[in-house]
Amino acid sequence: MRNLSILSYTGLSLPEGNRNAHGVALDVDSNITYVVSERNLVGGGTDIEIWQMPVDEESIPFATMTPESRPTFDVVRQVVSFTFLAESRQLVLILAGGDIAVLGVDEAPASSEFEIIGSVEPGIKVASWNPDESQVVLVNGNDELLVMSKDFDVQFEGPLRPLDLGEEKHTALGWGSKQTQFHGSLGKAAASSEPSTTGQGGIDKPSPDDDNRPQVSWRGDGAFFVVSSLDSRGPDSSVRRLRFYSSAPPVLLSTSEYTPGLEGVVAWRPSGGLIASTQRFGYEGGGIGRQGRHDVVFFERCGLRRGEFGIRNGFKTETPEINTSTDPWSYKVKELLWNADSSILALWIERTGSDCVQLWTTGNYHWYLKQEIIPSGTSSRYTSVAWHPENALRLICTTTHSVEDRTIMWETCASSSASMDSPGCVAVVDGSSVLLTPFKLQNVPPPMSSFKIDLSPNATPAHLAFSSDSRTLAVVHPNRSIQVWELAIRIGTKGKIACSKLIGESSLTNGHNGTNGLVCPRQIMLSGNSILVLGSDRDGSHDIIYITSITALESTTLKIPCFGRLIGDSYYQDNAGQVYNIKNRELVKLCAFPRFCAYGEAVMMTQGELLAGLDSSGKLVTCAVDSNAGPYVNEVSHSVNSFALANGFLMCTTSAHEIRFIPTDSLFSNLGETDRVSWEVRRVERGSRIVVPIQSAASVVLQLPRGNLETINPRPLVLVSVRGDVEKGDFRKAFLACRKHRIDLHMLVEYAPNIFTDDPAQFVDQIPEVDYLNLFLTGLGQSKRDAQEITTICDRLRAELEQRGLAQYVQSILTAHVVKTPPDVESALKVLHTLRESEPDAVEDAVKYIIFLVDGDQLFNTALGMYDFSLVLMIAQQSQKDPREYLPFLRELRALDTHYQRFRINEYLGKRELALANLKSAGSVRFEEAKKYIEKHQLYSKSIELWKGHSTEYAAILALYGDWLMDRREFSKAGQAFSLAGDSKRAMFAYEKARMWKELFSLALETGVADQDLTDMGLRVAESLVSHARYSEGARVYLDYGRDVPSAVSALTRGNDLSEAFRVVSMHRANHLIEEIINPEALDLCTQLCDDIQEMAEQLARQGLRLIELKDKKALDPDGYFGREEPNLHNVDALTDVSGISQFTKYTKALTGTTAKRSQKSSKKAARKAGRKGTANEEEYILASLVKLNQRLEHMQKEASQLFPNLSRFSDEHQTMGRQLRDDITQFEEQLRTIVEREWPSDPEESGLMEPAPTPALVHKPPKPAVSKEPWRFILTEI
Prior knowledge:
Layout: E1 3-13, E2 19-27, E3 32-40, E4 46-52, E5 63-65, E6 79-85, E7 90-95, E8 99-104, E9 115-119, E10 124-129, E11 135-140, E12 144-149, E13 154-159, H1 189-192, E14 215-218, E15 224-234, E16 237-247, E17 250-255, E18 262-268, E19 275-280, E20 294-299, E21 305-310, E22 331-338, E23 345-351, E24 355-363, E25 366-373, E26 384-387, E27 394-398, E28 402-411, E29 413-414, E30 425-430, E31 433-438, E32 451-454, E33 463-466, E34 472-476, E35 481-486, E36 501-507, E37 509-510, E38 513-514, E39 519-527, E40 530-536, E41 542-549, E42 555-561, E43 564-567, E44 571-574, E45 578-583, E46 586-592, E47 599-604, E48 608-614, E49 620-626, E50 632-637, E51 640-646, E52 649-654, E53 658-663, H2 673-677, E54 680-683, E55 689-694, E56 699-703, E57 709-712, H3 715-727, H4 731-741, H5 747-751, H6 753-758, H7 760-766, H8 770-781, H9 787-804, H10 810-818, H11 825-838, H12 843-853, H13 856-865, H14 869-878, H15 883-894, H16 898-909, H17 912-921, H18 927-937, H19 940-946, H20 951-967, H21 971-981, H22 984-994, H23 997-1007, ...
Antiparallel strand pairs: 1-28, 2-3, 3-4, 4-5, 6-7, 7-8, 8-9, 10-11, 11-12, 12-13, 14-15, 15-16, 16-17, 18-19, 19-20, 20-21, 22-23, 23-24, 24-25, 26-27, 27-28, 29-30, 30-31, 31-32, 33-34, 34-35, 35-36, 37-38, 39-40, 40-41, 41-42, 43-44, 44-45, 45-46, 47-48, 48-49, 49-50, 51-52, 52-53, 53-54, ...
Helix pairs in contact: 3-4, 8-10, 9-10, 10-11, 10-12, 11-12, 13-14, 14-15, 16-17, 17-18, 20-21, 21-22, 22-23, 24-25, 25-26, 26-27, 26-28, 27-28, 28-31, 28-32, 30-31, 31-32
């Protein structure tokens, strides 16, 4: 769907004189163009001149040469080949006389003479260089084929017309031959007739346009070349044949099949698929066909035909008396040329009046004539045509005294998508016809179209453009004529698609010269009633904008330096990216792109003017001109191949096969990363390009590389359309759009929440269909909206529908109940109950519908929980449950009394607390069953709540609860339960087990336990308390209830409460206990504390040394220390024959089902917990251990502070042991503080142990422990 337009034009002239330019050579690296010309001398000789462009009238040639040899055959010009060799930086001339001359361009200022390095005696008819400049093919005057290297060493020499057909000649096996086919009524005789092997009239003659010279063409990779030569088939009979050769080594591979009328032009497609030539029909000795038929034919490398297309030649020249369309022999094809990427085939055609170059492209197996280029200077003839070897869209043509350099561009001619009324029309140029398709009305794939405009007898248009309202189409032709067509595209769905007519025609020419010097019209635009034509002056140094009205009453010309491009209908961009607004036929600066953008679009928005441009590197940039602020220039994306503005979005396709949608509102500010992340992106087929967006249909038409079309409805465009419909109150259109394009229907609520909560009748009025309402409610229920909001909307819609008729909208009402979170199934069943009373005939269908929404078993259970047996039976019947299962069950329930029946129902449904309440309501006769039910399901809390006012049952339940707590070893709670139940004996047993001695003895004294039993109880409890390190409590029980002073003193001493022990001894006058109990146990206490601090010191020393070793290992092998592994190894799925576990087992899947499966995260967690040796995990483990040591130190300091004040009462041994303990604790405290400061330094630079940290810290350190610095000794231990 793309056309070819001229992006830029440059005209370079040679000095005037008796000379003719014949070709160009390009120095691609230096971007220099060399031109070769021949100047006829007065004496009859010829001088060959080389010009380095640009030049002026005073310039002299870059180099000159006078041929020394003359060809032995007739030639039109002396220069056979003129080439620049990039590797050696030489210009190479191959002349018809046989001379081969070279000139180093870097040496030209010193010596401007060519050096003849060799000569071919018979002369040279044709020469062609390999694309990589490594070989050259020559045909000499004796019709011999020569292949030479770049140093002109002969690699191959042979006849031009060998008798052999080649190494890959065809072998006919008879398959598909005429003899094997069915011929119908013609009979078997038709099978014996031989196909014609001669041209029309029974003879073979070359085309009248054939110059009888051989031609050579190379494949793009230089691996093969083809030679076209005129072969004799007898007296006065000859025909063209193509021979295909390999280049390394040069060997004849195949020969083309017999093709009468084949002409001499030949061009091998660089991509290698086809070899193009031309064939004439209808003359005596030519191809068999109608007279005047002229085709471009294609061959494969094997020599077989591969298709063709007809040449169109209907151009009306500027000379009225010459009309080429009436005489098919008034032109000839001089040359065929493929561009570098094989996308364009150029035909150089020589007409009676002037030359032209036709540019052909293909798509969907159809060949389009996209552009015709004619000379823009005073000469009407081209002397050479050549594509740029690297820039596939650059075409260089020469006339006798000028060089015309044009850059071509691909362009889609589509109508503006800014209006909702736009038909989305696209115009495709195909010769003198313009194919048009309004995609809003029809989606017609190319090469077909909805309708076409026939521009004949005019030629292929140079450019065309739609008006802003898409109603008219303007066309400009290469001969500077203008046409304006009214399209008259239909608005409705019936009638003829369009009735186009010509409403205006004019010309920019004035005699032979263009108006105000405008040549090569490149672009046309319609702006209101004005027509803008962009062209160049003759030398291409200035752009000319010709502005006229459709009625051509007045015109204005604007001249701007260098080349540019029109954007939209009223903007112009120069080659530096500066954008001007064309106002009152003047240019006013508006904004600037960062660089020149060949493709541009403009749209007027409420915020201001937005312009988007795409440069040659694929970068998409925008310039937003806000009326209240300066322009905002943003580089939106890169690798973009097409874009469009519509529906409030800038959409673009990229080489990553995505289409992106950028809100245009965000472009009126500087884009940030958060803006880019929020853009909608959609995958598209590889190589897709935007053809046209259809705003009214919220669609985008894409074209794929093979030419077919695809129409998509992107979510952003659909949402914009839906939002607009909702804001206008057109809920039905918005709903149908969401339904069609599978947009979540809850988006309607998103755009108009108040309508659904305040006035749902407006929605129901437009969408009264039950199915549509059900669909909406289901989508709302499945959305991620707030559950309370969903419930509110469902309730409001349900209330509105109930007012309109329960029977009519029962399905939607049921849906509104069950889509809530959680589903309100019980309310939905109540609706069925109500419907059964009012509309019994409609209940069955309603039940079927709700079973479709909700699981049948859930409905059965819910109805059963409502105790409505008729509803239960109805649901069971419609849900296809087995009657043998539910009928006996329902009969059994019906036979029970009400409360017990409900107990059974709730027990069946698993509602145990409600079942227990029903069982209580059944009376005291069911209490024993209730006790069993409570025990079975552990419903103690609920049962206590239910029977709290019934003393007997309440006590029995508490007793059950206490037994259950005893089994769970919750003795404290069990004691409370037994106490409340009045069971003192079991309560005391539970309190004793729980070591709740205060509650125990209080209850024992209240119940009057005997003194001896009380003493025995006190001894048991005290012993249990001491065994659980509750020494102070145990001592008190020994004294108060056990009357055992020695045991109390021992408990206090073991608990390091020596002060209390001395007080008890003094109070009971038992001083002998000091020597018997306190002295030895105090010494044991000191010894134990010394052993503990010694163990802690040894652990601290080991771990301190280990931390130093780990730091050294971390410095030597950080990867191994931190466990950095190759991430790709985690994706390895390897199985081996070895049953053992290798070192790579952690990277592989489990080999057996019993192998534990761990995620990477859990494995690392387990490794940290285990402190894997030699890694950062071990360091984490040791640091955590140091924190625990500090906690033990704090406990040790507290114990020592209680022990030391009493050691002065003991012997010297006790005091010596105390001093030793004090010193050990003090030393350990200093050692621990040193290591802590080293591992948790306040300032890392002061530690002197800085390690390289190329990555963030991988050792997770616990918080730094605070080692006590306050003195914990507050007595004199020196005494």
